[in-house]
Every structure is written in C-alpha cells, then in structure tokens.
Amino acid sequence: MKRLSIFVIVLATLGYGQVALAQDSLPPAPYAYRQLDDPQQEHEAEELMESLRCLTCQSQSIADSDAPMAGDMRHQVRTRIAAGESPEHIRQWLMERYGDYISYTPRMSNDTWPLFAVPVLLFLGAGLIVWRRIGRRSGKDSQ
Amino acid sequence: MIAEFGLAALWLAAALAALQLLSGCLSLTEKGQNLALLVRPAAVIQAVLCAAAFGSLLLLFARTDLSVLLVAMNSHSAKPMIFKVAATWGNHEGSMLLWVTVMALAGGLIALIEKRLPERTMLATLGAQAFVGLGFYAFLLFSSNPFERLSPPAEQGMGLNPLLQDIGLAFHPPTLYLGYVGLSVAFSFAVGALLTRNVTPEFARVMRPWILGAWIFLTLGITAGSYWAYYELGWGGWWFWDPVENASLMPWLAATALLHSASVLASRDALRTWTIMLGVIAFSMSMMGTFLVRSGILTSVHAFAVDPERGSFILALLVLNIGAALVLFALRANTISEGQQFRAVSREGALVINNVALSAILGIVLLGTLYPLLTEAFGIRVSVGPPYFNPVSAIFAVPMLIVLAVGPMLRWRRDSLGRIEKPIIAVILAGLVGIIVAFSLGGIELLPFIGIVLSLMVAVGSVLPLKGRSLRRLPLAVWGMVIAHLGIAVALFGMSADSAFTQQTLVAASPGDVAKVGPWTITLESVDPVAGPNWTALEGRMAASYRDEPAQRIAPQSRTFWAPPQQTSESALLTRWNGQLYAVIGNEAEDGRWQLRLWWKPFVTFIWYGGIMIALGGLLALMGRVSVDLRRRHAQRRIEQRHEGYVQ
Amino acid sequence: MKGFRIGLWLIVAVALGVLALFATQLSKPKDDLVRSQMIGKPVPQFKLDAIVPDRPGLSSADLADGKPKLLNIFASWCVPCAAEAPQLAALEAQGVNIVGVAIRDKPADASQFLQLYGNPYSRIGADNLSAVQLAIGSSGVPESFVVDGKGIIRYQHIGDIQDRDVPVLLQKLREAGQ
Question: Where found (chain B) (predicted)?
Fold first, then answer.
C-alpha cells in the first residue's frame, strides 16, 4: 500500500491509500512471508509474483506489498507451485477470475494486439529511417 | 503580509510575462520593431519577481505560518526544519510555483547573457518562453493559488505524508523539476528557430548548454528517485515501470536523443529538422508527465489529489503548447533544408542510430504507459508491466548499445570500420570475456546475460577514444562523453547483476536467531522501541557479518508516524564495494517472532553510481562547452576591438 | 519528401489522439473497480469451516441447493461492512437467503461484530487465506454475489450495499430464481 511516492509526484502529496487500510485480525498466511524450500520452485514463484498485480494496492505487484490480500495471493502462488502447478497455469487461473488486469505480462489478444504490433512497426520504421538517412546515401559522397 | 507580498509579486511577474509575449510577437512584425527593446528587460524583471514570490513561500513554510492554507495543509510545527522547507515543494501549489520560478529564471538568464543568435530568433524564443510561462502563471493564479489565507488560522498543521519526510524529498523533486523546466528552454529555442526559419549550427550551440543542464538534472532526479524508492519502499526494487516513473523517464529519453542530435547539428550542420522535432517532443514529454501525474487518470499510488479542474487546466496548457508547436513544426519543417550529408559509417551515422533507437524506446514506453488508458476508454482493463517493458525496450536498446561501444571512435562525415579495426576487436573481446564469465557463473536469464555482456563491451568501447590522446589536453567535452558512456556501462552492469544475482531470505526470527542470506550471516540481537521527533518505532538490532569479517550493526525500523498516522518500514542498508545488504523488519508474528526480510544484492549500487557518472559526464561536457563559448566570445571581442582601434 | 510530410502530420495526429484520449478520460470519473470475470460461471468448489458456533460453515454444495442466494463477503475489521448491516438486514427481512464469507477474521472478533451489527447470515464460512475470495474473483471487502439455485454466479456488487442497491439486488435475486 505504500508504494513510493517517490518520483515526480512526490511532490504531490498523495491523498490516497496509505492510511486507510484497516488492519485485519489474523496473522499473515503461512507462505506470505515464507519461502519455498526448493530454490527452483521459489524462483518460479517469485518470478510469477512479480508479474501479478496487487488488487488492493493497484500499482504494486504482490511481491512488493504488505497488503494482507497480497500476502494471501503469495500464499496461493507458493503453495500451488509447491504442489507442482505451472506458473502460467496459475496466471491463467487468476486471469479467468480478474481478467487481464491482474497480470503485468500482457498476452496477445483482441484487446492487446497493438502492444505487439506497434513495436514491430517501430522496428520497421526505425530500420527505414536509418536506411534512408544513411544507407541510401552511402554510395555518393556529400557535396 | 508575506503571503500578500508573494501573491502580488506573482501577479506582477505574470503581467511581465504577458508584456514579454506581446512585445516579443509584435517586434517580429514590420511595425513593432521598436518593441524589441522591451523584451529582454521584461524577462529579467519577471525572473526577479517570480523568485521573490517563491522566496515568500519558502519563508512562510520555514515559519510554519498556519494562517496560510497551503502551509496548514502540508506542514506541521513539529517537523525538523529541513522537512519544513522541503514541504514548500512537497505539494501541488508549491511545486507549480517552483516550476514557473525555474522557468522565469531560465528566461531571465537567456535574456541577460545570450547574444550569439540573430536578434529576431532571440525575440521569438523569449516570446515562446513567455507564452509557455503565461499558461503556468494562469494555472497558479486562477486554480492553485499557493498564498491563499486560512481564516481563522489552523491550530496545527496537517503534517506531511511520512513517506515524503525524507532527505530524498529535499532533493529529488526540485532536481527533476529543474530538468523538466530546463527542457522548456530547448522548446522555446526550437519554436523561435522555427518561427524565424533559422536552424543553424550556431543555434544548436546556443541551445546545447540548456539541453545539457536539463539533462543533468533529469539524470540526477531519476537516479535519486530510484534510490529513494529502493530504500524507502522496503522490498528492494528500484524501478517498477510505474506510470509515474515512466513519466520522468520519457523526457530523459527525448532529452538524451536531443543532446546527441544537437551535437550533430552543432558540429556538422546535419539533422536540422530532427533536432527541432526532438526539442518540441522533449518538453512535450515533460508537460505530459506533469499532466499524467497530476490529473490522476492513470493508476499509480504516486498520483495524488485528483482534481478534474486542475487536470483540465494542465490539459488545456498541453493542447495549447504542444498542439501549436507541433502544427507549426509540421507546417514549417519542410521549409528547413536538410543540411549536410554523411556516409553510413561515420560519427553522424552512429548518432542517427542512437537517435532512432532512443526515439523508438520512447515510443514503447509511451505506448506501454498509455495503452491501459486507451483500453479503459472502451471499458477494458489491462496491465502493462516489467515483463513487457524490459524485453521490448531491449529490442532497441541492444543495437543502440552495440553502436555506442564503437560509435565514439568514428570520424565525422565518413569513415571506415577498417580504420578502427583494433578497437572493434577489443570491444568484441570484451564481449567474449563477458559471455564466458556469465556462462561460467551459470543460471543467468537471457536479459541480464545480455546486459552483463553489453556492459563490458560498452565499458571498453567508451574508454577507447582516450587511447593515443594526451589526457591533459583532451577537451572537457570529450572527457564528459567518455565518463557518461562509462556510466551507462556501470549502471547497466548494476541492473543486470541485481537481477541475475540477488538473493533473498524471508524468516521469522526471535532475538538470538541467526539467518543467512548469500555470504552474510545475520543475528537478530533485540527488538527495541525507539522514538523520533514525530514518530515511534520498533527497531530490530542486528549484527551482520560478511563471510568471516567482523560483524557490523544494522537496525531497520518499523515506524509509526502520528501526524498523519501511518506505518512505514525503514530499511537498513550495509554497503560494500561489491553490493548491498538490505534488511527490513516487518510485523511481529503471534508467536513473538519477527518477520525479517533480507536481501544480498551484488553490485546493485552500480546502478546509481552509473547514474551519477552519467550526470557528471554531462556536467564536464557542459563546463567544456561553456568555457569554449566564453573563450570564443572573448576572442571575438578582442578582434572587434582591434578592428576598431587599428583599421579605422 | 512526400513521405516526410506525411510522417510529420502523422506525429501531429498521434499527439492529437493522445490529447483527445486524455480529455475523454478526464471527463469521466475514474473507475477503479476490478470486476469479477466469474459472472455466468459456477462457483468453484470450496468448503469453509464455521467461524461462529451458531451458524454452520459454507461449501460450494450449499450454494447449489436449488434456491438463489446472496453471498456476502465481509470482515469484522472492515468499516464499510458495518455500514451495510442495515441493508443486509432489510434484504433478510424480504426473505433473501444470505450466506457469509468472513475474510481473515478471528472467531471472537466475528462474534462480537455480529452481535453489534446483527447477523443476517444463514451460514458463515471462515476464509482465513482469502482462498474463496480469490477463487470467485473478488478484490476487496465488502462484496456481494448473487448466486442462482444451480450455483451459477449471476451478479456482483462491489463495495457496501446502500439503500438504493437493495431493490437492484432483489431484482437480480428474482431473476436468478427463475
């Protein structure tokens, strides 16, 4: 919940968020602040957690949040990975519930294709500019 | 009284900006040429008045004058002095006042000292500067008056958000602002040059110190912000591709491109339209960043006080400034001739690749930042985060960095790769060494792997231009370039090493327990309550030893502020030359143990050392450019004097 | 040269498009709600223990017993949950079967909360790990879901139920009962 107010806006005293979260009464979920014993599995879990959005804090990943719900989501992710589920399957499961919004990794779909098409166009455009600016003239000398 | 004085000074400054705009515009016409005399004095007096207004606000905050609404809302008499002063710009109104003040000071300075450009171009530039400034004066005076009185005065102030009560606040925002606003000068120069169709190498030379200055501050601001987020946030992250962070990165990307294209224009009279366009775009990005941050239309906790009226005001300014400048640009651009030509393999050729790649990365950051906003307009919510930005920007960053490794060794106009065969081999060898080392370490993912290899190549490539040159006679500007490029390599290495080698340990520990993270052994000795001026905290006292070295003490805190009430984690850092230990103490578990979060982050500090080197390189280049300009000016004056004395 | 000019105007067009986008987004209130994508889908399998002695726990099987229900996600530590208590009571008085999912709550706190603000629930499950909350796509407390007799989720209400929401929920429950 207290994602830094660091950049620019800092200036901008934030009116939002930070104070309001009421404290819940239970301790954090077992795997909210505990790593999996298998380093490989923990690594997979961390990678996934870093790319899932915390729903109660909105602009942090669940890996960077002290919000109780983020803790419960970390618990879900870790226990499922420990049970052998693949990270992408867990992501899929969450996206079925919360939509694309929960994943910081956009997937190609009817709603997101420009995110992938534009870089391709930019790449072609950049190539074209470089070619026209320098490639074409490389044959003749400057006057 | 101080508040009224400040407000009056602000109004007067606005009036002078109006005068500067009017006289600047009219003096470009046939009939209004006499008005040209007014423009420069107006700019200078405006700067003085605006500085007086800002000084008044500083004084009000320093005294915690609670009869001023802004002070009562954002400060508190119990705060340490430095945070009282920093609170001046730690809010919307104060930061906008800082913005116009810096802008007015820049305008005044140009008016006072800049004599190299044709007078018409200068008048148009100062007119453009007044045009942009006037919009911000109107914004301040009509919708964000910082001097508004509160009657009756408040008993006590509301305090400043605890996250902002940090030394970072004293430096980060004003630094970034200096960068943003500095780009407004480049913008005004670009508009002035467009209006008078005068795009020459001289123009680039005049504009360059301002770009450099703005760029140095942007670099420092982003570096400081990143480090601040890193230690304040408590999770060890230093860049999140958050919209607000992107808002500060985009002007930097544009300014970096502009810096390089301006140097092509200054040295070789090429890339004329491109330079003008980047000048317009760089400041547009600054303004857009301000809008995004302040309007609250993007999801970021950074965003504050969402005020539709203010958002609309900034949007109106955006439309006015960017719209007008871009249309002017589109109309005029093809009346500016292309400039000198060059071959593919040449310094210019390398810089064109740099420019195109930076622009493409800018495009991607812009797309990724705004895309969620676009889909939201159609009721669809998506998220774009690091897993998108990192690889997609790498597509352009990788070729750019490869060119960066060899580009500075190329000659202007035409060159051949054969001439610099040996340096190229050295760079390739560095890359091979990087590949072998990274492979032998094993388990490194693709992007950090590429990053490590490239950082070595760039590091070698960036110092090679020094070879065979007399270090003592090397111009400062070249030193600047070498150090800035080396800084890129250092920062890139830090980023890659952090993501490849960071180790994390989460434990629940009671006093006496020992935890290990990487090469560190950490003993939690005790957890004790401590009190500060406006907070109380639980402090975890720990002894940390690196391998067999003697233990050092660290004490992360979990702080509770009381004005306003809020909890924060204060991380504790132990810095070695080869990385940082990062420790955070969380909540107490039910069984009396404490949640500890420990990270060993090899070479993570290189990220910010690199940032500082980049800024330092900029500073050296700036000093070099300015001293050359001064010398040239001096020489010219002597020639003129001699001319008068002897010939006539 | 022609391509160059087209490129220039393209930049102007993109800039204007972006500014227009800003204007439309600015002109409407920001919608921060994260809606569940589970509407129209069956409630996932779950089984939660009871949290208070006088109400049984809750399982997905209980939700597919042929009658529509209002599934209310609440917690004793959540302030708006107390605010919606009168509206829940009104719904219960209209004959609505309300089942509760208590998020991250201690039995003692939950009992006290129910004593203080009333207990409209026929069953309450203790969701100590927010597992059910995640499974049905809820992103906060309080939230309420209309579930039909076959256990299909029909409607989601985000935030506390206010007076004006009561008829809407009654209508949705009626539709779910058909």
Answer: Cell inner membrane
Out of B116, B135, B165, a domain closes at: B165
Asked if omega into B152 is within 30° of 0 (cis), the reply is yes
Contact A126 B356 (CB under 8 A): yes
Round to whole Å and give the CA distance between B298 and C178. Answer: 41
B60-64, B159-163, B514-518, B622-626: which has the minimum mean pLDDT? Answer: B159-163
pLDDT digits (tens, 9 = 90+) for C141-159: 899 999 999 999 999 999 9
Token pair 């905290």: residue: B537
How many Å apart are CA B110 and CA B106, to the nearest integer?
6
Closest CA to A12 of B164, C114, B411: B164
Which of A25, A75, A98 is closest, CB to CB, to C34?
Answer: A98
| CA dist., res. C65 & res. B112, Å (int) | 84
Residues from C in contact with B at Cβ < 8 Å? 1, 4-5, 8-9, 11-12, 15-16, 18-19, 21-27, 30-32, 34
Best interface-test mutation with A: which of C130, C141, C156 has the largest number of A CBs within 10 A? C130
Find the domain containing B511 and state its range.
Answer: 503-602
For chain B, the domain total comes to: 2
Q: How far is B360 from chain C (nearest CA, A)?
A: 13
ipTM for this prediction: 0.89
C34 and A96 within 8 Å at the Cβ level: the answer is no
- Residue ending a domain, choose from B111, B144, B165: B165
- What per-residue confidence (pLDDT) applies to A16? 27
Pairs of residues, one from chain B and one from chain C, whose beta carbons lie less than 8 Å apart: 58
For the stretch B110-152, pLDDT in tens is 999 888 888 889 999 999 999 999 999 999 999 889 998 888 8
Helices (H) and strands (E) in chain A, counts: 4, 0
CB proximity A30 to B under 8 Å: no
Q: What are the tokens at B541?
A: 């006292």
* CA-CA-CA-CA torsion sign (B436, B442, B446, B447): negative
The interface residues of chain A toward chain B in range 67-96, judged by CB-CB distance below 8 A, are none
For residue B637, the surrounding DSSP H or E stretch is: helix B606-642
Q: Check: CB of residue B314 under 8 Å from CB of residue B295.
A: yes
User: Hey, which bits of B66-142 come out as E strands?
Assistant: none
Average pLDDT, chain A: 78
- Whether residues C21 and B370 touch (CB distance < 8 A) is answered with yes
Q: Over 50: is that where the pLDDT of B175 sits? A: yes
Give the pLDDT mean for B164-182.
79
Q: What is the CATH number of domain A8-105?
A: 1.10.8.640
Domain residue ranges of chain A, discontinuous segments joined by +: 8-105, 108-143
Burial (CB count within 10 angstroms: exposed 0-12, middle 13-18, buried 19+), residue B63 = middle
Q: Indicate the pLDDT class of residue B646, thresholds 50, 70 and 90.
A: low
Q: C15 vs B323: CB contact, 8 Å cut-off?
A: yes
Domain membership of residue B295 (yes or no) is no
d(CA B247, CA B365): 9
Residues 6 or more apart whose Cβ sits within 8 Å of residue A53: A59, A60, A61, A62, A101, A102, A103, A104, B383, B385
CA C38 vs CA B25, B235, B611, C135, C151: distances in Å: 61, 32, 46, 9, 12
Model confidence pLDDT, tens digit, residues C31-78: 778 889 999 999 999 999 999 999 999 999 999 888 999 999 999 988
Question: Are C137 and A98 in contact (CB < 8 Å)?
Answer: yes
Question: CB distance B289–A8 less than 8 Å?
Answer: yes
Per-chain mean pLDDT for chain B:
89
Structure tokens at C57: 């726990």
Residue of A nearest to C1 (CA): A132
pLDDT band at B628 (very low <50, low <70, confident <90, very high): confident
CB contact under 8 A, C130 and A68: yes
pLDDT over 50 (residue B532): yes
3 state DSSP class of C71: strand
